[in-house]
Design brief:
Shape: elongated
Number of domains: 2
Mean pLDDT: 83
Strand content: under 5%
Number of helices: 6
Distance between the termini: 38 Å
Radius of gyration: 20 Å
Largest sheet: none
């Protein structure tokens, strides 16, 4: 079931197709009667519009969460530095420069003629 869920969020489906597959996945997960799957299915149904927005716009918080984890690790390593500027320099050296492009800022794909 996890592979089916990954396929829904892969980004190659439009909003309507993803909605149909998400509904099917939730129904199947609830029918399994396994407590973790039932809980996830309820959560997905409650947050259905948010998931479909993520599919439609191609945005997720995965990159941001990964960056936050990296920065927290670097701050722990910087314990004992004499100033916060030294810790900031370490973060910028390891994680910068950061270049995030939102979907409306990306160049449109050219249609094949």
């Amino acid at each position: 079931m996890k592979e089916q869920f990954r396929a829904i969020l892969a980004g190659d489906l439009n909003r309507q197709e993803a909605g149909v597959l998400l509904d099917r996945w939730c129904a199947r997960a609830e029918r399994s009667r396994l407590a973790p799957f039932v809980k996830v299915a309820r959560t997905m149904r409650d947050r259905r519009e948010l998931r479909l927005n993520a599919v439609e716009h191609g945005i997720s918080n995965g990159r941001v969460e990964g960056l936050n984890t990296k920065v927290r690790l670097l701050i722990r390593r910087a314990y004992g530095f004499h100033s916060a500027d030294a810790a900031l320099a370490l973060v910028m050296l390891a994680a910068g420069p950061i270049d995030l492009k939102l979907p409306h800022e990306r160049p449109a794909a050219k249609a094949a003629a």
